Amino acid sequence: MNYTNYFVLLSILILAGCNPHGKTELQPPNVIMILTDDQGWGDLSASGNTNLQTPNIDALGVEGARFENFYVSPVCSPTRAEVLTGRYHLRGGVYSTSAGGERLDLDETTIAEVFRTAGYATAAYGKWHNGMQYPYHPNGRGFDDYYGFCSGHWGDYFSPMLEHNGELVKGNGFIIDDFTDHGIAFMEAHAHEPFFLYLPFNTPHGPLQVPDRWWDEFKNKELAMRAKNQDDESLNFTRAALAMCENIDWNVGRLQEKIEELGIAENTIVLYFCDNGPNSWRWNGGMKGRKGSTDEGGVRSPLFMKWPGHIEEGRVIEEVAAAIDLLPTLAGLVGIDYTTQKALDGISLKSLLLDEDPSWEDRYIFNHWRGSVSVRNQRYRLDNNGALYDIENDRGQLHDVSASELEVHAQMLKAAEQFRDEVLTEIPAEDLRTFPLGHPDALYTQIPARDGRAHGNIRRSNHFPNCSFFTNWISLEDSITWDVEVVADGEFEVILYYTCPDGDQGSTFELSLGESILKGQITEAHDPPERGMENDRDPRRNSPVKDFKPLNMGSIQLTKGPAQLCLKALEIPGQTVMDVRLIMWKRKN
Fold first, then answer.
1. Architecture of the CATH domain 435-587
2. d(C-alpha 453, C-alpha 277), whole Å
3. Could you tell me the CA-to-CA distances from 519 to 5, 370, 567 in Å, in that order?
4. 300 vs 72: CA distance, rounded Å
């Protein structure tokens, strides 16, 4: 239903003497979509895991519907792309989790655009992971308000550097609590109009950090339920991840309490799911695989959906479904007639949720990562090696039945090959997309170290680039470059975020983009320690963080068009030039 049409209908009813209050079908329903990061299917007490308690999340399935066979991608950004578009991630240009490969093509229609066009207020608070620079940014993809970080992972979860609609800000407390606070404030501000709220939480993805309140319950806890192969499991890692899951549950409870307090429960759809399998070997129902795998354990996710008075309590849905189905399902549930530029891969699950005896046909769902393709229908899974498993009777994928199910095996092999031919071929041999800079609809453009290339001696602070910085800049031959495209002519204020040891200050450097050049000098030492690790409950794989200092380099005039952005030193009086985290561009005109 278009919200403008709703107001016309409401006015007619009032003029006719009708009382529309309480008729929830006239008020477009709100939608709250909660997505967690690296939480496996087994990381809930609703899945039978006695190692933790998640009563608030579980209640969504008890008081609403629970999908038993819901599938996502094996890793983060592909799942997010499929949720946003209703299409397999490769179709939208998402083939990686960093270095530009996580960006969702700009000609894709997102779920936020669908809802905003229908009159909904839209917001996202959390980890975006489908592009940073506008219009890849959430504000360019249909979200009125955004608070969080756009990279794939972050290095500190306690009051870290975040952004609010492009502007860098400091977070407030533990990151999931902070995102929930913003979600609650958004609901309060829009309680009397339809809203679409997306909460892509970034835990239990590492670094494994959680407040003492939750860690104290787990740090010495005996774990009754273990990974299939216990030798593969790190108990400390598992304890930390589960503590983070219980923190998520507490915040889901806070959201539910606010919904009740605002009196909008019967007009609000709440759904909860995860973006891939668990990020370590731990109990996951005996399924094969974990994060990164196209087997059951890597792609099966819980999906709970609650809508009081519409979705019956305790409904269990066995039919296979996937992240690609959420856009058509949610649009269908709230009555939005929508159009997208490209055909969807997903289908609406509305009849499974609302109809007493839905008619449903079997289908194929495809899972892909790094060339590995797996196919699922209602009963079977074909794995990447061509083995066939009867998942209804063998969720752990222990027995290959391809020899006894020749026709099914042949059909699924054909489907997998067709998917490879039609979808995998959309992966470009070389990603020619540049990073947009200075879009006229965005005040800020962030160009982080993550998206740059180091030359000479310069290296990243970590193998995983998402929240890394550049260091070891020791030579005039060293440089950092970014492939960018200035979207529109303009004058920009340039702020460089750096650190520099005492005694090394004094270096001069040059920032150039085409014929535009801006020179600067490090006049003040700023050498904070690497940190973040002090809050880790288990040793991290992610980059450490530092408190980088902003240096206002002044203003520069840029001309529309593609160019290489280059940062290089002109003079190095000390041992190093500086460490670089990001360059922020603020449009002045």
1. Sandwich (2.60)
2. 31
3. 55, 42, 10
4. 6
**Residue labelled with tokens 């919200």:** 3
For residue 205, what are the β-bridge partners?
Answer: none
Q: What is the mean pLDDT of the chain?
A: 95
Show the CA angle centred on residue 197, arms to residues 194 and 200, nearest 5°.
170
Q: Tokens standing for 556?
A: 């520069």
524: its two tokens? 């003040």
DSSP string, 565-578: EEEEEEE-SSS---
Instruction: Indicate where the chain has its CATH 3.30.1120 domain(s).
Output: 366-426
Please determine, for residue 479, whether its predicted confidence score (pLDDT) is greater than 50. yes
**Which residue, 452, 482, 449, is CA-closest to 468?**
449
Strand partners, 271: 33, 305
In 275-370, where do the E strands start and end?
A: 300-306, 315-317, 321-322, 365-369
Q: Span 210-237, mean pLDDT?
A: 97
Nearest by Cα to 415 from 463, 362, 484: 362
Is 446 in contact with 439 (CB distance < 8 Å)?
Answer: no
Please write the tens of the pLDDT for every residue from 237-283. Answer: 999 999 999 999 999 999 999 999 999 999 999 999 999 999 999 99
Nearest residue to 178 (alpha-carbon basis) of 152, 191, 204, 160: 160
Helix axis angle for 235-262 and 55-62, nearest 10°, is 60
Instruction: Encode pLDDT of 296-314 as tens digits.
Output: 999 999 999 999 999 999 9
Location of each CATH 2.60.120.260 domain in the chain? 435-587
Phi, psi of 110 (to 5 degrees): -100, 160
Q: Are 66 and 309 in contact (CB under 8 A)?
A: no
CATH top-level class of 366-426:
alpha beta
As annotated, the residues of the chain forming the CATH 3.40.720.10 domain(s) are 3-19+33-354
How would you classify the pairing of strands 479-486 and 470-471? unpaired
Can you name the CATH fold of 3-19+33-354?
Alkaline Phosphatase, subunit A (3.40.720)
Rg (Cα) of the chain, in Å, rounded? 25
**CA gap 311, 281 in Å, rounded:** 34
pTM above 0.85, yes or no: yes
Q: Cβ distance 44 to 57 under 8 Å?
A: yes
From the list 274, 273, 275, 272, the residue with the least C-alpha distance to 256 is: 272
Q: Which residues sit opposite 161 in a β-bridge?
A: 170
Tokens for 393, please give them. 């009777």
CA atoms within 13 A on the CB side of 170: 6
Helix (H) or strand (E) holding 350: helix 350-354
Q: Which residue has the tokens 């180091």?
A: 454
